[in-house]
Amino acid sequence: MEPEPESRLDPRYSDEGATAASWSDAVARLEQAELFWLTTVRPDGRPHVTPLLAVWQDDALYFCTGPAERKAKNLAANRNVVLTTGRNTLHEGIDLVVEGEAVRETDEPRLRRLAEAYETKYGSDWHFDVRDGAFHGEGGEGHRAVVFRVAPSTAFGFGKGVYSQTRWLFG
Length: 171
Known about the structure:
Keywords: Oxidoreductase. Helix content is 19%, strand content 41%. By secondary structure, the protein is of the alpha+beta class. The protein has one domain (7-169): Pnp Oxidase, Chain A. The longest helix is centred in the last third of the chain and has 15 residues, at 108-122.
């Protein structure tokens, strides 16, 4: 486990009396979040945003995608991504933004732990077998998914109600 990054409150975007959110609280929210929005960059420079599922494990977010899907094609050209999660409300909760590089995960023992984490978090509809460095769902080779790891390089927490902006910087 990496040391907890320093939490810095940006007073320009925070109410008077707001406090910085702790990274441990942010991690708990990342572990519990069901839906994330992934932003990638197309080869021609246009952004691409799509919802997906992700799990937090080993100080990183992990997501999977079919190797022929747009996000996988984008990652082949540019591995920089943003994962966003939060609440679709104005006056409560916290929105989290994780910036980092998506790196393909092929280590099969880790993939097996991740497959178990997906099924535990999302239920039996999200059962994956692991082989050849990828996830495999029901339906044969057409249901192959490559897995990516995103260790945060920078993260932000946007508190609502008492408005605040916390920034976390990593290594």
